[in-house]
Amino acid sequence: MSRYIELHPVNPQARLVTKVVDRLRNGELIAYPTDSGYALACAPGNKEGLERIRTIRQLDSKHNFTFVCADFAQVGPLAIVGNNAFRLIKRLTPGPWTFILKGTKEVPRMTLNPKKHTLGVRIPDHVIAQALVKEFGAPILSSTLIRPGQTIPESNGWEIEDALGHLIDVVIEGPVTSTEPTTVIDLTEDVPEVAREGAGDISLL
């Protein structure tokens, strides 16, 4: 069974945040709340964690994994960002958006789309998610927790614990801002393309 941890939605307990991040660094898999439902996360170089996410979500090799960042400064080393993409990301973040971009050579190849060499980047507007990434000190590798056969993310930690606790090392209990997944914007070309409409308001594009 997983370790079930409740974090305060406004002032996450620093001691507990540190314990969760220590487990991320030790190769474990966590489920945590965001501004667009729950997500799974592991450390970026964690191959086993990556495969566990694929198994839980039944993902194929074409899936774009997302690097969750604390701020825009953490995006630069990960992705190739043109001027138009830069302005759009700065305007929309933090918020419930995932941006598909070409990865840089610094990104582990196993986390990139094998044909397009793309990845997702995201800067959430959520206290608990931000606390975890800031304590980790670098982006964390993440994927929205949408179970096979479902179209919306999980939104309750206790339900994740009951159903998937045997597959996840840490489940964090905390509120989500929206039960919709992120809006996904493909920025690999000059014109932004909406790949999935979700919690981010596309009228802002």
Automatic annotation (TrEMBL):
Annotated YrdC-like domain residues: 14-200
InterPro entries cross-referenced by the UniProt entry: DHBP_synth_RibB-like_a/b_dom (IPR017945), Sua5-like_dom (IPR006070), SUA5_domain (IPR052532)
PROSITE patterns attached to this UniProt entry: YRDC
PANTHER family for this protein: DHBP SYNTHASE RIBB-LIKE ALPHA/BETA DOMAIN-CONTAINING PROTEIN (PTHR42828), THREONYLCARBAMOYL-AMP SYNTHASE (PTHR42828:SF3)
Protein known as: Threonylcarbamoyl-AMP synthase
Species for this entry: Actinomyces ruminis
Lineage, top ranks: Bacteria, Bacillati, Actinomycetota, Actinomycetes, Actinomycetales
